[in-house]
């Protein structure tokens, strides 16, 4: 017998002793997450009991096998984070069930496995599952050898999984082993509904399903007790029933709750319902389920009513990955995300676009956060559905898994059947009236108390009747909900995805681009926060829509955090997104303070952008923005006032010097024409031309801005702009190379800021793409700086000083509300980095092997001023009772492994994530060193987990 096999048997025996002591047919659930053996690759023999896994890696679950990398920089789509998530892998774990348990039912419960898991026990296939995001249970009773060692082997296969973002890979959520008596409560078979809620009382109906695996009818008693938050008993009832042989019965209990404390956003009160199952007078199982008492109503005109009061949804979309930790769920990491979002003012999340981990809903219950609970993205391969599989049984199976698990969470206020699903026949797996009606009923079969809707994106869907069966509709981007308002005036509408704004934290670039999807600094998106995806808008444009269309229940911005994958607009060069208001490691972008200033109007917010380190720009213009909840602010540079700005004061549009001028056109297509300029416009896939368009503006004038309007997206045109005076001496003042980036859409207007004297200007075309005709619709010329009218709403929500001559020193902003100061912020020019500063989000951790501390690493100068451009490579060493779980700087283009002990500061900062060891507790020391800087350290405490 191999040594490793003997060792496994010994381990199993130890588990059996601990597992079997005092066992007397009482149901219990055991954590099944420690001590798995893992190996990538397909190893069919690993399901066998005698297989030698001694050389395999030992891991704990939740576990994401792909997050360690390496990144594949040559993978050009970027949609899934450039990480090696596709493949097959195996997990093995030994268990022993005490001989005295024979006759019990034994189950394995998984909250999520990515993807297509097959679960073997002692070499036999015990069960499998077909969607990576829903929970499932495997009955392993027929395969377990009682009183002996058993092996559980799980084969995970992600090769068939479809995704539009990084999905993770492996047993990435928690697993549990449950041993139940033959008559027991059904997993997720408890449903709690509150009704007739008033200040005096509330009616609580608790339905419990009981399963009888015996061949005889069994008399049972069910005792249900409700406890208040302080664990005082407030209601109790006992019922007697007969559990039919080989069947499942449902027992309904109704209780009256006196003077209920309501679950609300500010006071998320939770009650506990304890159900005791007695067979032949003996208690065999006890289940505690938390619930909240609240009323929620979605209305078509008066918004969302929570406990009778209107609540505007200030929501964020969140993908399931946890940044550098990957897909492996961690309660503390998820809690930290919620902390950031609530501090910003968010009161809701959308689980885009899949069921979340169960623990995330626990956190939302506890913190008072509403949840849009979503089942699928599309109804195709992203749902793990095979093309040949019938829709109805697949949907019903996973709807049941989602709803039965989540229906008792007071935070969940709506169910979503999917996101951006195209109608059939355009997508054979897409929407039809029959499928939508079936999907709604599949959910309502398990919970009829919550509305059922869909995240829509095609306005035409309102005209086909395909949305008729839904209780509400969600709409993604650009006021596409307007048709739904006309077609379904009695259906509530939620703005389910808004903004899709883009930025790279701390990466400010000059000049500021003139259009929302101009990205001249690839692969950086300017941190000045004027950019968005082509299909979407900057936040202020969405604010205006929400203010105008007050029938909307609120918004869910895309997204709360940057996430792995979908790195629009730089799919080729980056591995994580630019969408978040917080970056991948949990460092807020400037946009965070824009939302905070609006969503928390009574909490002081004063934030200045950009940094004030602009060496080489002395005397040049560096625009400054102040984000504040105040109505005005005054800006000072080195003590000198730069004036007061007030929200709502929009600048006037400067005069067009070319207004009324005739647009002259000349030139002809020449294959060599594009090479005559000092700036080559040649593209192998482009048509080449020397066509030009010209306007004369009269007497020579000072020109600061030129705006071009094209028939198609401006990105497709290659050209140079030339200026001349009456002497006819043409000189190039601006240029553009034709490109397909960003890949999705674009705007027709192009704005170029110049500084030139001219009496005439012309656009000379070079290589253009997609067979566009080389011409402009108009040329507009301005003596003052011109800004697209698209950006006018920004003056209502942020305060802008567009002309600030840079000089090193101190920027100070003082914010006011109705003339009274409410706060101030200061930004200073930093010198050379002199040391590192380490700041932990928590000083004490639980020694459970899962708890985390997030330590921010920041470079400062000798005066302690943050160095916003520092990029030092920092070595992180962790000693004591903890380990380095991950480290990163938030750079979407970095290909350094998150588990490397070296991390580069990105725009002055990085974050190291420290995981506490499991055990008795003690000290954890985190030391950071970088070339040329003294090492710095911070010490954390860990404490033993409470029983």
TrEMBL record:
Any one GO BP annotation for this protein: carbohydrate metabolic process
Name of the protein: Beta-galactosidase
Domain DUF4982, chain residue ranges per copy: 619-648, 794-822
Pfam families: DUF4982 (PF16355), Glyco_hydro2_C5 (PF18565), Glyco_hydro_2 (PF00703), Glyco_hydro_2_C (PF02836), Glyco_hydro_2_N (PF02837)
Domain Glycoside hydrolase family: 836-939
One Gene Ontology MF term: beta-galactosidase activity
Gene this protein is translated from: lacZ_6
InterPro entries given in the database record: Beta-gal/glucu_dom_sf, DUF4982, Galactose-bd-like_sf, GH, GH2_Domain-Containing, Glyco_hydro2_dom5, Glyco_hydro_2, Glyco_hydro_2_AS
EC number: 3.2.1.23
